[in-house]
Amino acid sequence: MLAVHFIRRELKERYRGSFTGFGWALLQPLLQLAIYAFVFVQIFKARVPGAAAPGYVPFLVVAMWPWIAFSEAIVRSTTAIQDNSALIGKVALPRQILVLAPCAASFVLHGAGFLAILVVLAIAGQGIAIAKVPLALLLYVPLFAYALGICLTLAALQVFVRDLVQIVGQLLTLMMFAAPIFYDRTNLPDRFQILLDLNPFTFYVEGMRNLLLGYGAFPWHGLMIAIPVAILTLALGHWLFRRLDSHFEDFL
Amino acid sequence: MSNLLISAVGVSKAYPRAHLAADRMRSLGRLLLGRQDADAQYVVRDIDLSVRRGESIAIIGQNGAGKSTLLKLITGVLTPTRGKVEVFGSVGALLELGAGFHPEYSGRDNIEMAAALHGLSRDELASRLQQIIEFADIGNYIDEPVKHYSSGMVVRLGFAIIASLKPDLLITDEVLAVGDESFQKKCIRWMEDYLEQGGTLLLVTHSMYHAQKLCRHALWLDQGRLMQFGDVFDVSQAYLAWHERKQAASEQRPAQRFGVEFEIVDLEINGSGGNQSTMLEFGGTLLMKSRIRSRDGRVPVAMFGIVRADGTPVYGVSTDMDEVSVQRLSDHDYRVEIEFVGLSLLPGSYQVRVHTMDTEGLRLFDTLERGLTIRGESREFGLVRLAHRWNHSAGGQVD
Questions:
Q1: Which of A149, A209, B246, B355 makes a 20 to 30 Å CA pair with B336?
Q2: In Å, what is the CA distance from B346 to each residue of A134, A217, B167?
Q3: pLDDT tops 80 at residue B174
């Protein structure tokens, strides 16, 4: 109940005072997509490898929207405790909620944006497997758990180590390019393949592409790893947060 | 034991050093390993407190005594470093000015947010919203962002929210002082009702008037330790007396006082010594006795004076002005006694002072000060009643 209130508050706050309001939620990733699509399609002449391959735009979309939700959740949650220091020193409330709110808000916002753009792509005849959308959304469950685990860890550590937020931005960029978001696994020389397997996000990209575009095989092997990784990360984040949370106000 | 509301056992709170990045890293490591911090600064130490439902306790003490920290420990905003705090009921806390308000949000949005924090559902909130807005009484500002509020309005809104929640335990931390006179009265009236209906109150205040009006018990903290707990009148008097002693020690008594030529040994007012303030009925008799020690055996001049609590002199007179001398007890000991019959000081707070001067009445050597409260009811203005007569009507003579 309280969590829902905080998520609503977070959503409201993000676009309060801006003219287009929630429109930005869709507009911003669309602009980003337009830039990437232009750079990769027009300049680098990127083409999705394989016969009967989907166009580059849907190929990029199904990987990029989950990534935006994931990375934005992490960036925003890292400073969640620090940003709410006024509340922490004065009101008794479960602090996890303060981290959960920005994390969940990012997923809600970009989840909705994802659905909207899938509908647009389907209407445009880009071969989206609408029937499999619910399955694709199911992938968001372990992704969210994984993100929340990271968010809790980073938010708690950020209270003590203020440099963290700077490092996180860099690491996320690295992680983005080290996942097959802009390219396909087959674009990469064999000796780098191992990097993709080490990157937890690879599974989500390949899973989405299989389900929504029918591109590539479903990464069953990745699923077997992704679920325990998500659970362990969440457990670790929860443990660390609980350990530190009663001391936050001393360091804010 | 079912009516126990707060149980605090051996509660201590220490703040770690958190200035430098290196300190923070070290603290983080310690916390992760579950170790205690060695060089922490204790602000509250070993407080035991159990509060039953329906009690009202004022928490008094000078600035930095740990009052607010203790309240924060009870509300659960802070976690005790050692010891344990348990609260068996709902808590409504007004900890600091604007606590928990989002400055960018309107008053209405903040009410909603506070209601959610206190676990109210939307329906419950809807039924109380009007009542909250009426109690706060800040007009159209309710739809303005809180950052545009004056500090008084913030308190009004905060108190209105807490008032509508009717928590089992109400905690307020010196916030009443910000509201204007009429709002303070409203709050006090509300708190009196609340206490009558069985509510429990913890009040941090510097106003002994508020403490005595609202609370039955008082808890006096100094440097994080419990100095005294008991009846509000006993504790507040002990606290004020301690303050006076402290002030006397730092101001009126220079360090070289011992061995001054004419030292005031004691001052007795209407038969009572010590440092307590004296109470006297309007028009009563004020009898002051003092003993003076003369180092060289020379005869001192003694002076008595009365000043108002703010320092305005009311009256002063010395032995040499009236050409009397102090009474000699032995070579070095003298005694002086003065009596004001039918004291015409109007009701209020005053201080009486005794000074010693050298034989010539030129140099001041020692001063001792004591509080004096004149009780009584009078609608007259000023400091003293002057003898007067209304000449145009008969029977109105006062002298």
A1: B246
A2: 85, 97, 43
A3: no
8 Å CB contact between B358 and B262: yes
- Same-domain check for residues B238 and B263: no
- Same-domain pairing of B232 and B260: no
- Distance, in Å, from the CA atom of B133 to the CA atom of B161, rounded to the nearest integer, reads 9
B153 and B49 belong to one structural domain: yes
Nearest alpha-carbon partner for B243 in B65, B42, B56, B41: B65
Residue B390 maps to a domain: no
Residues of chain A with C-beta less than 8 angstroms from the C-beta of B113: 5, 9
**Does residue B276 register a pLDDT over 90?**
no
Report the domain count for chain B.
2
Q: Are residues B164 and B304 in the same domain?
A: no
CA distance A143 to A70: 8
What's residue B255's pLDDT? 45
Q: Which residues of B touch A87 (CB under 8 A)?
A: 100
A9 touches chain B (CB under 8 A): yes
How far does A46 lie from chain B, in Å, by closest CA?
Answer: 46
**Is residue B89 included in any domain, yes or no?**
yes
Residue A157 touches partner B, C-beta closer than 8 Å: yes
| Neighbour tally for B76: CB within 10 Å | 16
A194 close to B (CB below 8 A): no
Q: How confident is the model at residue B38 (pLDDT cuts 50, 70, 90)?
A: low
Please state the domain extents for chain A: 49-251
Both tokens of residue B21? 């990045």
- Mean pLDDT taken over chain B: 83
pLDDT digits (tens, 9 = 90+) for B40-73: 778 888 889 889 998 999 999 888 888 888 988 8
CATH number assigned to the domain comprising residue B134 = 3.40.50.300
Structural domain that includes position B263: 253-375
B397 in a structural domain: no
Query: Residue B384 gets which letter from DSSP?
Result: B
Nearest residue to B90 (alpha-carbon basis) of B169, B195, B194, B163: B169
